[in-house]
Amino acid sequence: MFWKKKHIPTIDKDQLELIENAQKRIKQKKRLYIHFVVFLIGAVFLIIANTVLGIGIDFTIAGINWFVYAILAWLFLFIYHFINVFVTNKFMGKDWEKQQLDKLVAKQQQRINILEAGLIKDNTKSKKTTVSEKAEKPAPTTENKNKSELTVIVAAGENNAIGKDNDLIWHLSDDLKRFKRLTNGHHIIMGRKTFESFPKPLPNRIHVVITRQKDYKAPEGVIVVNSLADALDAARKDNNPFIIGGGEIYKQAIPLADKLEITRVNATFDDADTFFPEIDSSIWSEIDRVTHDADEKHNHAFSFITFLRK
């Protein structure tokens, strides 16, 4: 990037609510376990008191020994705590806490990426303005020629499924040809896992790989960065860089994208583990669609759809 500025993260109301809810749930779980132990010890004490010590052995209620009522009450409390501790444990355990933290980090990182990308664009615009001031009569088409258009390209099922185990769920020959034609000669920006799914770097394209790993080793010619903002900066001289995956990179890039090139596969893939975000029709306008029926080379029907930001 041209320069870096230290950002002081701010927490909005939604993020603050997530944090407070996480803290509240953690306290509830601790209390729940304490209550469970207390009731368990109390139930055991009642059993010992009646069967071993003989306390209240002749006391009955409605002709039924009080011990039966105590056991039933204990059983109800045991079932209640069992459900809360073991059935709903996934909502309060370490995995749940990690999910809450990941949501906060992802949301804050997305905000930082947008801010950094805005700084890059503002700085670039400022430099262009300075050059324009020195020129006597700048050509009216120069700015349009130099303007970079960020495109997100993806193939997704009807349920937005895009992959499983870091691989595609389908093989569509025409889709691969279209991907090659559109991205040929451009920067392709991707996450580390997407890059590692390739047998080797794709020819005639500049690969920009985003990873949090330090000292990540990549083949010669592959650009390695640590954030989407840095990736966009690396591709700033390209008039049409492409975002090609995976799921988390798509989420971060869509707020910055100018165009979406979607291959909509006419099928639902319930076993997928990676999904593309929903396309908001209030933000994106469909400008082109080409349909393709299933045939001997394509197991699924699909459509090539182009969206532009409104």
- Tell me the number of structural domains: 2
Question: Quick one: CATH class of the largest domain?
Answer: Alpha Beta
Give the % helix. Answer: 40-55%
CATH homology-level superfamily of the largest domain: Dihydrofolate Reductase, subunit A
Number of strands: 12
Key traits:
310 residues, alpha/beta, Dihydrofolate Reductase, subunit A, 2 domains, 8 helices, 18% strand, elongated
Short structural description:
The protein has eight helices and twelve strands. By secondary structure, the protein is α/β, with parallel strands linked by helices.
Describe what this molecule looks like in 3D.
- By secondary structure, this protein is an alpha/beta fold.
- The chain folds into two domains: 1-147; 148-309, 3-Layer(aba) Sandwich (Dihydrofolate Reductase, subunit A).
- It is 44% helix and 18% strand.
- It contains eight helices and twelve strands.
- It is elongated, with a radius of gyration of 29 Å.
- The two termini are 28 Å apart.
Helix and strand topology:
Blueprint: H1 13-51, E1 60-61, E2 64-65, H2 66-87, H3 94-134, H4 142-146, E3 151-157, E4 161-163, H5 173-183, E5 187-191, H6 192-196, E6 206-210, E7 223-225, H7 228-234, E8 242-245, H8 247-253, E9 259-265, E10 274-275, E11 284-292, E12 302-309
Parallel strand pairs: 3-8, 3-9, 5-6, 5-8, 6-7
Antiparallel strand pairs: 1-2, 4-10, 9-12, 11-12
